[in-house]
Write the structure tokens for this entry.
Amino acid sequence: MLYDPPPMMVLGLETSCDETGVALYDTDRGLVADALHSQIDLHAVYGGVVPEIASRDHIRRLLPLVSQVLAKAGVSRPDAVAYTAGPGLVGALMVGGGLANGLGLAWGCPVIPIHHMEGHLLAAMLEGDAPDYPFLALLVSGGHTMLVSVAAIGHYDVMGATLDDAAGEAFDKTAKLLGLDYPGGPLLAKLAEKGDPHAFKLPRPMISRPGFDFSFSGLKTAVMLKVRAAKEAGDLDTVRADIAASFQQAVVDTLVARTLKAADHLGVDRLVIAGGVGANRALRDALQEQFPGRVYYPRIEYCTDNGAMIAMAGAMRLSEANTPNEIKAMARWPLQELSIPAEQ
Ligand code: KG4
Ligand code: ZN
């Protein structure tokens, strides 16, 4: 008779940036409960994330969210605690890592350090209609832009990455230039709905270069010049939505062209879109329309940072669960350094 492992409950903690996320994942039943607190209001007045404020708010929110999730699930203690160990803001990561290890000691259960981008990469598997391996992932967040060939968990080949700004960073910086609040990405996308995407001619960086890398700083400079010219002409208010729409179109065209080229090179017919910019409707629609195979993405709330993806990644890396003895918090952590988990 085959050994049938008992179901395990994994608590996941996400505190790498400006969202406090907690979730409980059952290896048999999937996601059981989750909760999220966004710090957007706290950072908005500063126009960007203030690391010290982020850490302090994670401290305030994390434990109450843990109690809330456990109560919602009717569970008194999980079998393991997974936490985001990087990449991210070190002070913020230390809050999640510190509590995960503390809870692990108190509950006598193991802890699992998780790579934030692996969480994003696998988030589409939280959905009922999960992609099979292998697939190509377009990972577009505030700090990263990558095309990753995924053969299985831990088998990641980063085919291309950004040489300068990440896609989300380009959205946020352009939004700032247009006078929009933080976080600019979603606000710029909303403004773009009212504009003409062909009103302004903007570059599609790297689109015809060999390889699969990205670059967005030239596009940002081109937008800056348009904004400056509009300000000097005194008509920024009239063209703001057109600039937003033209910028979004340029980013979407660039991401789509590179993604289609990478998929063609690999010969894969499954594409996963992940990370905060994956919430962008124009990007989803364009890929849905132009990708010849099937496109998978997590629901909008699991595109941006959340605890569910960390709890699920923890469940997939249970073989790496350790007794709590070291708090891992890494500002940088290349995805390529991840191990291939042992068979569970
Ligand atoms: O994945 P995420 O929540 O955090 C990181 O790991 O970085 O991504 C946040 C990024 C921000 O730059 C935000 O502006 C962008 O995702 N973003 C969007 C949209 N929603 C979030 N960018 C464009 N369109 C959106 N709808
Ligand atoms: Zn993220």
DSSP finds eleven helices and ten strands in the chain. The beta strands are 9-14, 19-26, 30-38, 80-86, 111-115, 135-140, 145-152, 155-161, 270-274, 294-296. The first strand starts at residue 9 and ends at 14. The radius of gyration is 20 Å.
